[in-house]
Design brief:
alpha/beta, TIM Barrel
């Protein structure tokens, strides 16, 4: 193979965001693993981390968690029941990859995939680097492989999420009385390091500061690279998503992997994409991801949000979780797309492999809306302004979802374009009429026609100095948001 990309940032900056990714806009991934067995939150995927830490408090927008005490009350002390002891209960007896694919495709997702490995180091494919994987232990199936076949069978692009860089510090090896410090289980919990750390960190900020000083060993970095190569070579994903732990990976390893993956895309004749968080990669080498957040205004670069179908506190199945409505999720997607962004939505299946009914209901609502209004989302481009109206998200960046909630009015619109069509998506149903003020920039006679997607029959509309005024039909054509398709004359 004649490699186009070399492992240096200048070469890697030449990799462009694939057109399919820009067109797809919306994807779904699943946090599903050992942590779905206890299903105790908040932030269930961090259960293996928190169950060993008494008094753990998570800052920076995360709520305080008492998973240590809940584990003690429910399963006993960690000295007798460690995280590994949940594995036999991860049976996935009702898991059906084809059913997941149907649910996600019907929701309107254009790409989908699993968390192939979370911070806990349990691989969801038969890795050759460890016996601690879903093929050799419960659920005794190659989850990554089964989902790859099912999702591609429904016409979706395939992605994998990789969190395994965080495994370096996820378990407290200094707890001499716990299984995490037992050499017999080091191939799961990780090599012992900083075992003399006398006082465990009390909160997220202190622990991450400590972890920044405790750099991964070469053996760990090699395992990180090997597992990525296994997934790339074995399943040919279109998209690899990295969590925040990428910042602990040595620069040369990141350069080597990106060059390897981008060149594999050339070899497969397939456009591939990588996303990352914060400043873990240099600008232009991949696409930035914003966790549980968005941008306040339109950007001149591509970005994606990863959010979750629940209220933002689970990241995996959680008992008694509250779920977002289809309206909230669609407004999130519409707002992102108008600002040159995309959305990756997390769903947390139960340990038995079923998708919670509340999540299915929200996804079905999204799919029903996109079946009518999807032409304003898929293959669309941002307009020169993202929208208008009194309601704006003022908190931007990661975790903004947890700080700011808004309620849209009938004056709030978001815009996209496709060819000679301007789409104006109203985020609420007004009292009397729709007025699109941005249409004041259109010349008299430039508007050739106006349709309300899903509405049968003509609309009454006119161009005025106040904008494009559209009389409201008696009944809304759909739920959640309302898309006007404004066709413009192309004659100059």
């Amino acid at each position: 193979m004649n490699a186009k990309y070399t492992p240096d940032w200048r070469s890697l900056r030449a990799h462009a965001t694939p057109q399919w990714f820009r067109d797809a806009k919306f994807g779904i991934y699943t946090h599903w693993g050992i942590y779905s067995v206890p299903a105790i939150g908040p932030n269930t995927s961090w259960y293996g981390h928190n169950m060993y830490r008494s008094g753990t408090a998570l800052t920076k927008g995360r709520r305080e968690t008492d998973q240590f005490n809940q584990h003690l009350d429910t399963f006993g002390p960690y000295t007798k029941f460690g995280y590994k002891d949940f594995i036999p209960q991860f049976t996935a007896e009702k898991f059906d990859a084809d059913q997941w694919a149907e649910i996600f495709a019907n929701a309107g997702a254009r790409f989908a995939g699993p968390v192939a490995e979370h911070h806990d180091g349990f691989s969801m494919w038969p890795t050759k680097t460890s016996r601690w994987n879903a093929a050799e232990m419960a659920p005794r199936r190659d989850i990554v492989g089964l989902l790859e076949k099912a999702y591609r069978g429904k016409g979706m692009k395939y992605m994998v999420a990789m969190h395994h860089a965080e495994h370096w510090w996820f378990f407290p090896h200094w707890l001499r009385d716990a299984d995490v410090a037992d050499p017999k289980f080091a191939d799961f919990y990780g090599e012992a390091h900083n075992i003399d750390y006398a006082v465990p960190p009390e909160d997220w900020e202190r622990e991450t500061e400590w972890a920044a000083m405790d750099r991964p060993s070469r053996a760990f970095l090699e395992k990180w690279k090997t597992r990525l190569h296994e997934v790339v070579d074995g399943y040919r994903p279109d998209y690899i998503w990295f969590d925040f732990g990428l910042k602990w990976i040595h620069e040369q390893y990141k350069q080597d992997f990106l060059a390897y993956y981008y060149n594999k895309g050339l070899e497969w004749d397939r456009d591939v994409v990588v996303t990352y968080k914060w400043a873990d990669l240099p600008p232009g080498t991949a696409t930035v991801d914003i966790e549980l957040g968005r941008m306040a205004d339109q950007t001149y670069y591509d970005w994606i949000t990863d959010t979750t179908v629940d209220d933002g506190q689970a990241w995996g199945y959680m008992k008694n979780a509250q779920y977002k409505s289809a309206t909230e999720l669609l407004q999130y997607l519409i707002d992102n797309v108008s600002k040159n962004g995309y959305m990756l939505l997390n769903v947390g299946p139960k340990a038995d492999g079923t998708i919670p009914e509340e999540a299915q209901e929200a996804l079905a609502g999204m799919g029903k809306w996109l079946a009518v209004n999807g032409e304003a989302i898929y293959e669309s481009s941002p307009w020169y302004q993202f929208g208008e109206g009194p309601t704006r998200f003022l908190v931007e960046g990661a975790f903004g979802d947890m700080k700011e909630k808004v309620k849209f009015t009938g004056e709030d619109f978001r815009f996209t374009v496709k060819g000679n069509v301007l789409y104006a998506i109203a985020l609420a149903w007004p009292q009397k009429r729709f007025t699109i003020k941005a249409a004041r920039d259109l010349y008299p006679g430039e508007v050739a026609g106006v349709e309300l997607l899903g509405h049968k029959g003509p609309l009454t509309w006119r161009q005025t100095p106040d904008g494009l005024e559209i009389e409201r039909p008696d009944t809304a054509p759909c739920d959640h948001a309302y898309t006007f398709k404004i066709t413009r004359n192309t004659q100059r």
